[in-house]
Amino acid sequence: MNGERPSDLHWLSASEAATAIARKQVSPVELTQALLARIPQRRLGSAQDIADAVVWLASAQAGYVTGQIISVDGGYSL
């Protein structure tokens, strides 16, 4: 990272974020706020969100779904 404090947190990778927190360049709260700003649903995902997708994929309703990448990320990857 350049400088003592990142001014634009949206570009941080997971390892860069962990390093920034460890070096006290950014607080976990600031980092979480920056991440939430990039997620259209404005919330972090939960284990239940993943479980719901798995249950649907294992159901007969998804019986015709093949070879797809299902992103359960609140729109982050859009």
Descriptive overview:
The protein is an all-alpha fold. The chain contains three helices and no strands. The chain has helices at residues 14-22, 28-38, 47-58. The chain is elongated, with a radius of gyration of 17 Å.
Structure described in brief:
The chain has helices spanning 14-22, 28-38, 47-58.
Please write out the topology.
Blueprint: H1 14-22, H2 28-38, H3 47-58
Please report which band the strand proportion falls in: under 5%, 5-15%, 15-25%, 25-35%, 35-45% or over 45%: under 5%
Order of helices and strands: HHH
Counting helices, strands and paired strands, the structural category is mainly alpha
Mean pLDDT over all positions: 83
Low-confidence stretches: 1-7
Helical segment tally? Answer: 3
The span between the termini is 26 Å
Helix content: 40-55%
The largest pleated sheet is described as: none
Shape: elongated
Task: Please give the radius of gyration in angstroms.
Answer: 17 Å
Number of strands: 0
Oligomeric state of the chains?
Answer: single chain
